[in-house]
């Protein structure tokens, strides 16, 4: 019985960790780009183009921030191995601070 409970706890933890890693969170936008991008400016511009192609009002404003539909998002990138092949994910997380607050 203890083994079953331990297995269920481990499975739940694994699912939550995987969802966090992939960027499946509330108040975030995540996608897998077609091409690999390096450098925050290139990643931000790729996010801007993808979101504009999806019909959203998006602008990369620099320093790892993007404005989407009037709201400010922090841009991040994760490379995750899927079946041994590296997969890049671009994740935009909604932030309460404006980029000018960091100065």
Task: Please tell me about this protein's structure.
The protein has 103 residues and is an alpha+beta fold. It has a single domain, classed as Ribosomal Protein S8, Chain: A, domain 1. It is built from two helices and five strands; from the N terminus they run H-E-H-E-E-E-E. Strands 1-5-4-3-2 form a five-stranded antiparallel beta sheet, covered by helices on one side. Strand 4 and strand 5 (85-94) form a beta hairpin. The longest helix has 21 residues, at 2-22. The model has no long low-confidence stretch (mean pLDDT 84).
Strand order of the largest sheet: 1-5-4-3-2
Q: What integer is the average pLDDT?
A: 84
CATH class: Alpha Beta
Unreliable parts: none
Enumerate how many helices there are, as a single number.
Answer: 2
Q: Give a short account of the largest sheet.
A: 5 strands, antiparallel
Percent of residues in helices comes to 25-40%
* Secondary-structure content class: alpha+beta
CATH-level-2 architecture? 2-Layer Sandwich
The overall strand count is 5
> Beta fraction of the residues?
25-35%
* CATH topology category name: Ribosomal Protein S8, Chain: A, domain 1
Brief account:
With 103 residues, the protein is an alpha+beta fold. It has helices at 2-22, 40-53; strands at residues 28-31, 58-62, 65-68, 71-82, 85-94.
Give the secondary structure arrangement, pairings included:
Elements: H1 2-22, E1 28-31, H2 40-53, E2 58-62, E3 65-68, E4 71-82, E5 85-94
Antiparallel strand pairs: 1-5, 2-3, 3-4, 4-5
